[in-house]
Amino acid sequence: MTEFLTLRPRATPPDHPATRLDNYWLPFTPNRDFKREPRLFSRASGMYYFDPQGRPVIDGASGLFATAAGHARTEIADAVHRQLSELDFTPSFYRSHPLAFEAASRIAGLLPTGLDRVFFVNSGSEAVDSAMKIALAYHRARGEGRRTLFVSRERAYHGVNFGGVALSGLVNNRRAFANAGPDAVHMRHTWLAQNAFSRGQPEHGADLADDLLRLIELHGAETIAAVFVEPIAGSTGVLVPPKGYLERLRAICDRHGLLLVFDEVICGFGRTGKAFAAQSFGVRPDIITMAKAITNGAQPMGAVAVDRRIHDAVIDAAPDDAIEFFHGYTWSAHPAACAACIASLDIYERENLFARGEALAPIFETRLHALRDLPVVADIRNYGLLAGIDLKPADKPGQRGYAVQKALFDAGLHLKTTGDAAILAPALVAQPAHLDEIFDVLRRVLARQS
Ligand SMILES: Cc1ncc(COP(=O)(O)O)c(C=O)c1O
Is residue 295 within 6 Å of ligand 1 at its C-beta? Predict the structure, then answer.
């Protein structure tokens, strides 16, 4: 809590542009309510945000699952500053720069063996849509161009671009954009009442993977390109895969020639105790998407890690001097993002953060499940430093979660809510005392809900 001592309240004059709230249209936010009662952060350090009045708000969600090494790491800020002063921008097509190759090889070093061809993008949503295109390009390169259907899951969140929306299993994210984009069909989600209050991987539900067999039977394996799952479905409220479930998906994909894609935008970079959830669960997908903690949240960046065999099939299908994959972004492998990525990976390694997160997880689990006695708590799920708490709904679905999220901010705790689920994902640098503070505030606020 030493951050309190360096606090400097910042006075904003009444006519300053920052006091005008009309122009900025916030994403995934009730804008009118927000602008009636804005809740802003103006500074961050370590485990804390500070509001414009200088009041600390402990961060129980790594911002939005991004700041694994804590906030405002000077090593990252310095690396970005240095990079922008030296080489601010390189065209990403036909040109590149050394840090792009270094970042790719550092990421490859963290991945399961052979999953080591890295395509850079600028967000999780772009990673997902790029992975979908890679899957299509792969099948086409092998003469299986009929494989254009994707399989996803109810309650899945794969970002907001049209590919990710097609995969989405969250109704609000689909409703307004119905049936635009690629074709996707959905397996059931893995939440089961009999698994309530499971610690770690639940016992029941491996057989839910057999939904994939039913979809194969209905649509034909020869029409399916890839199966996308979050190893732990994060944004929907943290659904941990039942024991044996991911293994079964892998076996079915292998039998039918389907690519298995793990969307690790939340799980990646130590959230589950290992670099990637693929390693925590011992299941090797063909493609992994990542973002968020790839730069410790300090620069927009995402990536798609691709099995060498998939990469080579796409590359080798094109003539030697031709573009092999007609896809990419102006800011793919932006120099500042690469600098932030390398500096973040340096911190993760130097401070042994994945192992530290893994060591903290049992303490986190114990403190988390101690909330079970609260009348408003309906279910608790967790794995690594990621947890979801289902709250009993109030009059309308989502009303409780929204009220709790505002009350928590006012009480000094930031976490994410989705509907009536509260989601925790503290930074890997958290100390047990930080967890005490997070859970004390949470208990106090939830105890007031009836
Ligand atoms: C699993 C998953 N995929 C994709 C995304 C989209 O990432 P972004 O918001 O960076 O586009 C998210 C964001 O939370 C996510 O959790």
Answer: no
